[in-house]
Amino acid sequence: MTQPAIAAERLVKVYQGRPAVDGISFTLPADSLTGLLGGNGAGKTTTIAMIMGLLAPTSGAVRVLGADMQRERFSALKHMNFVSPYIDLPMRLTVRQNLMVFGRLYCVDDLADRIGVLVREFDIHDLLDRPTGRLSSGQKTRVSLAKALINQPKVLLLDEPTASLDPDIADWVRARLERYRSESGATILLASHNMNEVERLCERVIIMKKGQIEDDGTPARLLQRYGRLTLEQVFLDVARGNSGIREPVL
Amino acid sequence: MQTALSDFTDSLRRIAAMVGRYSYVMRGSWPRLAELVYWPAVNMLMWGFVQTYIGQKAGYFAQAGGTFIGAMLLWDILFRGQLGFSISFLEETWSRNLANLLISPLRPVELAIAMMIMSLIRLAIGIVPVSIVANVFFGFNVYGMGIALAAFFMNLILTGWAVGILVSGAILRNGLGAESLAWTVMTLFMPLACVFYPVAVLPSWLQTAAWMLPPTYVFEGMRALLIDHQFRADLMIEAFALNLVLFIAGAKGFAKLMDAARRNGTLLQTGE
Fold first, then answer.
1. Structural domain range at position B50
2. CATH code at A194?
3. Residue ranges of the alpha helices (H) in chain B?
4. Whole-structure pTM value
């Protein structure tokens, strides 16, 4: 049996006596695209931060590609990458400089070629010599995605990747993610409260509420379980504590 | 399969990546470059003229005055060595890039080495021209100290780096609210390190505290060299031993502060 790409085991994170994540467990197989849904304060960002090793769990463990992220994270980090609108690339560096710095940090071979591929893939040729701080939101997103794919990660974590983007750019981002996943077989975990996005992209959805996993299944299964037509309706049922039409969870 | 050699070369690549990152920022900002030279030059001119004025008097006092420029140069090595280290770290917090680095394969020790290299580069840009000014305007040739200068430099830069590492840890743990430490912490050293006066000037109870600081040995050694023409190797060895302790304490302190930041979630929030 192949090891899961991500394995969270009874993860708990408590801040000042209040649990932000309260004993969640899940595994994500390789070559999967999973959505992590939940409202504000549900624990999505905290969960992702623990998976990345940025945040130490209060208890429990998380393994990525078999490596314990509290003790062995460097062996996994070279195969991971991350996108979030809340974490910036150095604004004073040009796009080209940023890609070179991160390419070297990830020890990417044939870095110039790899940057060339990403430049074409994300259509950022005209942005290369512009300071990153002078890009529009959509341009920054494209550059951040290019940086996130510079090391062709096996595990890609995305925290609200299309937040504050217009629908055109957001759709573009989703298409690129789908393409990357299908070409590379990477494992993608996407935290979002954009239900349409999750419904379109994800083959599995984990719904969090108040630090716990409220439900977990394919979009079709969740829709059936709650008797709803859209994931947004399912999400509202979960958020409001409305069980709707529920099948027993097996 | 990863070998020790490939691990080592990967480590060098990551260090070079970070040196490149900071160099790009420095090269792209003329105010940052100007600031490296401007402040040391102004200080040098001011103390140089003070020294000239005092040197017009006769006797020991005049000789002691001849140490002001040397003291100022060595103080700048200490102060700017620490500041150059801390500024590199602050660049990451200002640009909200720290999380990007912490989720990359970059090890903390590699980041520290890159910041030490940048500290040396910034020092070179600032101090070398100022040392030339000191020679041209005031006839003070710091390089005339010879091997002693290397010993002074090594001990001062080690102290600067040790303090820089601790300050970086404090910023990690407390966010940019601790930024002012980067600019001011070294001034705490100044009275006790006896930059411009011998340790004997201090009351006896403060002398004990002064002798606990590595820079004190350097400045006493500088005065011994310039006034008595004597190189005190014993002072340099004692300074080095204290620096080792300070450096290890700084590294351990940083590791503890990093662990605390990881537990408290402040790595996610570096910024105001």
1. 4-268
2. 3.40.50.300
3. 4-27, 30-55, 60-65, 68-94, 98-102, 108-138, 147-174, 179-192, 204-210, 214-227, 233-264
4. 0.90
